[in-house]
Amino acid sequence: MLKKLLVVLAILFPSALYLYIVNKDQNTTPKAEQTQPNTTSQPQYQTPDK
Predict the structure, then answer these.
(1) For the segment 1-50, what is each residue's pLDDT rounded down to a tens digit?
(2) What are the DSSP calls for 10-38, one per residue?
(3) Coil, strand, or helix at residue 2?
(4) What are the C-alpha distances in Å from 36 to residues 13, 21, 26, 40, 43?
């Protein structure tokens, strides 16, 4: 019983650690990703798909 529990924790721990690191990085970088749109550039139009 204890061995099965340890195996499950050993499998899930790397995923949990990855999610923790990714979410931690997303919470600290939103200011760097926010940029003001350039109002002096020409407007961009979507072209139809062929």
Answers:
(1) 999 999 999 999 999 999 999 998 877 655 555 566 556 667 678 888 77
(2) HHHHHHHHHHHHHHHHHHH-HHHH-----
(3) helix
(4) 39, 28, 19, 12, 15
Residue labelled with tokens 């979410």: 23
Report pLDDT for 9: 95
Structure-token match 């931690």, residue found: 24
Length of the chain: 50
Sole residue written with tokens 């139809």: 48
> What letter would DSSP give residue 40?
T
